[in-house]
Amino acid sequence: MSEKKTWRVAFIGTGMVVQWSHIPSFRRLEGVEAVAVCDVNEERVRSVAKDTGIPQAFTDYREMLEKVQPDITVVATPNIFHKPMTLAALEAGSHVLCEKPLALTYADAKEMMDFAAQKGKVLTVGTHYRYSAPMQAAKAHVDAGFFGEIYAARTVWQRRAGIPGYGSWFTNRDLAGGGSLLDIGVHALDRVLYLMGYPEAVSVTGVSYDKLGKLGVGLGGWGLDISKPGEGVRYDVDDLTWAFVRFANGVSLIFQVAWASHLPEQFFAELYGTKGGANVTNREGVDLYTVLNGQQAHIETNVPVDKVSSYAHLIENFVARLNGDALVDIITPEQALSSVRIVDGIMRSAALGCEVKLDD
Ligand SMILES: NC(=O)c1ccc[n+]([C@@H]2O[C@H](COP(=O)([O-])OP(=O)(O)OC[C@H]3O[C@@H](n4cnc5c(N)ncnc54)[C@H](O)[C@@H]3O)[C@@H](O)[C@H]2O)c1
Question: Is 320 a domain residue?
Fold first, then answer.
């Protein structure tokens, strides 16, 4: 009997997502060994290595890749580094889980995916919401044809006070590339595209604002290295982005994200179909709407509470794919690129102040 492979995993970046999601999610799996961590913050990388018992710690990712030769590399650093670190890890012979956003432009994301294909490696991205219980519940109704033809959709993730990492890389355009769009927007878009079947987008109109962050209003949530509002804090990314997307099949999408607003929190995806509609929130289950025997019906479905996080499911699916399970629901390169193409269009449209055609 052939012995099952053990996947040796290394992590570039030891910030919040690696500590909270990646390390525990890999460690719950059989046949995976966390072998090394790397961070430019020496104190942090040493303390994460000590607390988790990961044997090797580095401050230079190229040195780590060369010395450790990991089978899997996780890239979870400020967004600007995703591309060079992913390319270096692929070159070193790793499969890669790169955090979202995969890249800051469509051209960069395409180059990364093409390089992964050339190297025969799997490159996937941390857009994990498709694996959440409500999304899986909604997808089952899509696949069963409950909605008929889905002709329009809306995705909204709006926070009241959730500007992450104020004054850190998160709010610095040179390091993050953008704000709410590249952070929660990437998730909001990918989850609705998953339900819509990733249709081909043809044009985008986007608008972005940075009003509240500049005033030091709406701070909260995620991120290390946070500053207090005041002199010298850099804030030059969007904290609200809206967009309207048209697809080749005639479907349209309204997209609204905000890190901060003087309005209540909202988190949902809506599907508009010829036979039914849905509102997918973070409730375990879906709100479905249709007409039953001539009467308007609202059906609240419930699914068992999922004790495993959507992030852990993403990592489980990634490793299953490496183990040769062809049936797993891993985000494909085409799906990842289709999301990035729209985000790239939203950024260009917001900068230009007009609609852009996505005819690459
Ligand atoms: N998928 C998700 O739901 C999710 C959630 C949170 C964050 N993220 C993504 O993960 C990435 C990291 O986010 P975070 O919240 O952990 O940020 P963080 O600020 O907590 O951590 C980033 C870490 O990267 C380190 N770093 C910076 N430059 C480096 C370099 N050149 N080499 C090695 N390490 C370097 C920093 O010192 C820091 O420890 C971001 O791209 C973010 O968008 C994804």
Answer: no
Q: Is the CB of 182 under 6 A from ligand 1?
A: no
In tens, the pLDDT along 130-184 reads 999 999 999 999 999 999 999 999 999 999 999 999 999 999 999 999 999 999 9
What distance in Å separates the CA atoms of residue 353 and residue 209, rounded to the nearest whole number? 12
Cα–Cα distance between 191 and 150 in angstroms, integer?
A: 15
CATH of the domain at 66: 3.40.50.720
Whole-model pTM?
A: 0.96
Distance 39 CA to ligand 1 centre (A): 10
Find the 17 Cα to ligand 1 centroid distance in Å. 7
**CATH number of the CATH domain containing 143:** 3.30.360.10
Question: For residue 113, what are the CA distances in angstroms to 189, 206, 332?
Answer: 19, 25, 10
Q: Are residues 112 and 158 in the same domain?
A: no
- The values of phi and psi at residue 148, to 5°, are 70, -135
300 residue type, one letter: E
